[in-house]
Amino acid sequence: MSIESAQEAKMKFPLGEMTVGDILDRGLKLLLARLPSFYLLNLIALTPVVIVQICAPLALAKDGILDQNAIFSMLGITFLGTLITLFLQPLATAAILHIVMEEYAGRRPTVGQALSFALTRFWSLVGALLLVGLIIVAGLVLCFVPGIYFAVTYAFVIQIVVLERLGVTQAMQRSKQLVSGYRWRVFGVLGLVQVAGGMFQNVVIQGLQIVLPSQRVIPTDGGFRLELNAQNHVIDTFATQLLAILFATFAAVCTTLLYLDLRIRKEGFDLALAAQLGEESSPPKRRDRYDDDRRDDDQHDYDDRRDDDRNPDAPRHGDR
């Protein structure tokens, strides 16, 4: 098998620049190909908040009714679960990015291998998420436009911290460098993924609330109460979280493919990856008996010529 055919058999996707359609199509294929792994990794991070969101209302409700005090208590408990999730989410994120990169290169890591890799980048990723998140939020609060600018400029910080193993500030500079000259492309692709995914997700969630309403608002003299349907609440909460995982993972996969596309366009990353895969695919050179015999003959002739040079008066080899 030639190197080229070995690469084609090994690569899941063709190497080269990607159009917007390519990014979305390959993102969907990658998502579906490793969906169980992606769900498992995300559930590791989201389990605390899912448990809280399901159990807290059921525990605080009295005869299926949540008063305002119970609602405030539920919000506090949910906030605590969210903090735990924010601490665990970088682990899942790093593992997912590792799987995406390996799948793009034609390799298939296990969940355990992805988690082992993620542990090596955990604290760096936590720092990157906190710093970049604060910068983007500050930009959105002060004025909407700077927040969008920062979100686009630092769109690939997570990918760079995880996949290139750079520090936080170095990753921010690197992301800015990659985005330079392609800012509108990055804005368009990420905006399309986020807006389209968010709209579809909202439609599905609203449809669930219509078909399986989990709560009903009851006006009172002092405000309102919530009448809770326990069965529908469990179904809606679980379905909402599964849907959120699906679209968040799809967005992460597409962002990583966009990151790879920019590296291909600006740095020839596809050629470097092809060369790497070619070295891995090249079979070891086979020695045959003819080569060994010819090497022995060449060595023998070389020794004869060296002896002749040292003894010019001696009979030449081959002289009669």
UniProtKB/TrEMBL annotation:
Biased composition (Basic and acidic residues): 282-320
UniProt keyword terms in alphabetical order: Membrane, Transmembrane, Transmembrane helix
Organism domain of life: Bacteria
Region described as Disordered: spans on this chain: 278-320
Segments crossing the lipid bilayer: 38-59, 71-101, 122-142, 148-166, 186-205, 238-260
Protein's name according to its UniProt entry: Putative integral membrane protein
Native source species: Fimbriiglobus ruber
